[in-house]
Amino acid sequence: MAAATFIAGEEPGRLVRRTAALTVVVACLVLGIKYAAYAVTGSVALFSDALESIVNVVAGLVAFWAVSLSYKPADDDHPFGHTKAEYFSAVVEGVLIVLAALLILREAWGAFQTPRGLEAPVLGIAINGVATVINLGWASYLLRLGREHRSPALDADGRHIMADVVTSVGVLVGLAVAGATGWSVLDPALAALVALNILREGWKVVAKSLSGLMDQALEPGDDARVREIISGTAEGALEVHDVRSRLAGRAVFIEFHMVVPSAMSVGDAHVICDRIEDALQEAFAEARVLIHVEPEAEAKQVGVPVL
User: Which ranges carry the Cation efflux protein transmembrane domain (predicted)?
Assistant: First the structure.
């Protein structure tokens, strides 16, 4: 049996942790700008937009903690590392999103019952537009970095902030219409739509995180890539079977059985294992590979022949 040794790269870890810390700073900046937009207009829709930014601040703090924990090396109590910590961050963020949506719905209902006109809508829209542009740029960066480093926490933050951008654009368009027409009922209606949209996003964040906590397998495209790499680098082996994978944050666990000729030496089998492990780790930077070697005479089942 051969197992790959995993050593986390320090530079990617520093980059991800620094980004998580900067997310809190950006969230605080955006919160201040959005609250200023609400203060000059009295708009419930802009208030709901600012309230969601409070969630971004809290979620950013939780994400920073989770990312920092996830890069801690394996220890006696956690021999497989701490990479799953990021899933907890995403779950917490999803719960906070739901809480924010409920608070927004309460405010919207109050505004429906007592409609009020908007003050300085043009200035409020302009101020909120600045916050939206900042969020758009930061969300795009988080999503790209989350994909590159397989970070559930950064990915969840990026998706949430991008959803915030979409709702903010909707709010700005709606407020422009409300200001032009004088239909004050549009303001609470927009706030309610914001709440429903972030409820949907919150559910998606929680569902994806729970799937990761339950050892979700690689996506079909990545799984096919794993099998292709094994087949292309297992020269000297006869077949492989029971190929399985699971995700644990940015870490990828891959294991399978490899059948070799009964007369093959342990040393020769180990050379094949090393070749396969190196190829998988090149394709998946933080792959942890476990290979069970079986002699042909004792192979437990018929698998996929090695080409």
Answer: 23-214
Q: What one-character-per-residue DSSP string does 12-38 give?
A: HHHHHHHHHHHHHHHHHHHHHHHHHHH
Q: Which domains does the chain have, with CATH numbers?
A: 2-213 (1.20.1510.10), 220-305 (3.30.70.1350)
Three-state SS for 217? coil
pTM: 0.62
Task: Report CA dihedral (51, 52, 53, 54) to the nearest 10 degrees.
Answer: 60
> What digits encode the pLDDT tens for the residues 69-88?
877 887 788 777 777 777 77
In eight-state DSSP terms, residue 290 is E
Between CA 32 and CA 47 the distance in angstroms is 12
Residue with tokens 């029971």: 242
Query: Given pLDDT bands bounded at 50, 70 and 90, which one contains residue 297?
Result: confident
| Residue carrying the six token digits 């601040």 | 57
Task: Report DSSP state, residue 66.
Answer: H
pLDDT tens profile 233-264: 999 999 898 899 888 777 888 999 999 999 99
